[in-house]
Amino acid sequence: MRNFFSSPTAIMGTALLSIVLFAAIFGPMIAPYDPQAFDPLNRLQGPSLTHLFGTDQFGRDLLSRILTGAPSTVAFGVGATLLGVGIGSIIGVVAGVSGGWVDSTIMRILDGLLAVPDLLFTLLIVTILGGGMEHAMLAVSIAFAPGMARIARSAVLSVRTRDYVRAAVARGESGVYIVTCEVLPNALSPIVVEATIRVSFAIMIGATLGFLGLGAQPPSTEWGLMVAEARQFMFRNPWCVAIPGISIAIAALGFNLFGDALRDALDPKRSHG
Amino acid sequence: MSWGYFIRRLLAVFLVLAIVTFAVFAITTMLPGNAAIMILGEYATPEAVAALEKQLHLDQPWYAQYLSWVAGILHGDFGTSLRLSLPVTQVVGEAFVNSAMLGATALVAVTITAIPLGALAALKRGTGMDLGLGLFSYLGTALPEFVTATLLLVFFAAPQHGLFPAGGFVAPWEDLGGFAAHVVLPAATLGLVLMAHISRQVRSEMSEVLSSDYIRAARLKGLTERRVIRRHALPNSLAPAIAVISLDIGYLLGGIIVVEEIFAWPGLGRLLIYALENRDLPVIQAVTLLLAAVYALSNLLSDIVIALLDPRVRYA
Fold it and tell me: Residues in domain ABC transmembrane type-1 (chain A) (predicted)?
């Protein structure tokens, strides 16, 4: 862990992640304009000194809209992932610890669910639950659960036969104690790495749902929705689709690179490539 | 290749598909929301809802609905589309052909370019070219399809110059040139992500192989660098690349949903969004099942190809 910052991936990832987290925490406070204020005389302007990122189809300041949209975008990604990791880990740990027919039944069901692409799975659930941020978040977390369960299970299996777990069993510790105090802490690192990388997928799926009109609803400043709303005007002012699009990419890239670097730091065997 | 391995894998695929039919059915019918009310609108009279429920067999218990649905599938009958009043098999079949053409174009174009690019990056590790490719591949994985598609539209389909059409579809058997013009932008959108994955995987495998003992031995034995790479390094770094390509088919199946919607490509993705918006349950079920089946079969195919390339896998 000591030479975490020796790789360019880690430096880049940390830098991007800091920008994104800064925007998510302080964005709404430092936004120079009201993100919902119309300015009909200054519609679809390119970047200038008064509007650093330009204005959208209603003359709203793009920088302010990006900054106020940051908290919900990051919260969506992190929230959906945490929920998905939670559900998935419980399933995976139960499967890994139980073994036998419980394990094989759970794994077969997960195999089936994993055969459905993430976005398709999410779309199905969102359509049934109805659109909106909360439902979209729940849908993404459900779609993530099978993959996370698989990783949690293999992490548990790899520590289950270690001597310290056997020692705890021999000491006569309770099953709950063994799982929470011996197995979980040691199985945690692959789960954390995978979760960090998944935040970037969650952000991208969330934005895609917003784009399709199934996630955040107008006049929200969610970035995917901003691209969708500005699409009609993209030939007159490409900035109003490019800026939110690039913001999504930066947020996703930040989590992705940071997760990759974390994996390399925690598992020296995989440090190549 | 041993038949036992093949048969075991084939059985596993069928098991997965059986579970998928159940999952798809459960998701589409057992979660809240009544299909009959969704079709008729919330102001429908109770009698109309009851009549439609009877017509859709929604009045039967779920296991009876499930069994009759599965029995239909086994006879090649996916029911009738509620909105289009056409057999689902026909609607989905046409869309599948269109999607397959888009997906295949993207996959072939990317495979031809990404494998040499990845290998080149591994050979020239640490140079500007390697770094550029790395950056590009990270960008590829971080840009959602709708952003890539929109940016490509801005650059290549603006009304001023109109290099490519902004959307639509021409069948290749009617006008091959028209098909090519329409397929470029959607295929490029899908291709960006695929290219990122595949070239990165080939690069990382290739650099590992290049530092292995047998490559050193081949060099020490005095083989030309060309022969070392072509006969020793490349074949050994391809098996993982094939595994990634098959995983990417899974990505492709999700990616086409958004890409087809944006470029008005009449394939499975567009059909699925239409069906979801209109609560056309038989179509939703058929498309989901088909996408899952394609994914499972592509995984099977890649396992077989890998087993053929690498004898160690067969006996694992």
Answer: 70-259
Test B295 with A235 for CB contact under 8 angstroms: no
Q: Do A256 and B291 touch (CB under 8 A)?
A: no
Joined tokens for residue A63: 């920088």
Q: How many domains does chain A have?
A: 1
Q: Do A120 and B145 touch (CB under 8 A)?
A: no
pLDDT of residue A49: 77
Nearest to B23 among A112, A123, A211 (CB): A112
Q: What is the DSSP letter of B12?
A: H
Note whether ipTM > 0.85 here. no
The helix (H) or strand (E) run that includes residue B69 is: helix B62-74
Which residue from A109, A127, A249 is facing B276, i.e. has the nearest CB? A127
**Separation of alpha carbons A19 and A151, rounded Å:** 30
Residue A51, phi-psi category: left (phi > 0), alpha (psi -120 to 50), beta (remainder): beta
pTM of this structure = 0.85
Structural domain of residue A175, as residue ranges? Answer: 9-22+61-271
The CATH number of the domain holding residue A225 is 1.10.3720.10
Residues of B (79-98) whose Cβ lies below 8 Å from A: none
Is the Cα torsion angle A88, A91, A97, A100 positive or negative in sign?
A: negative
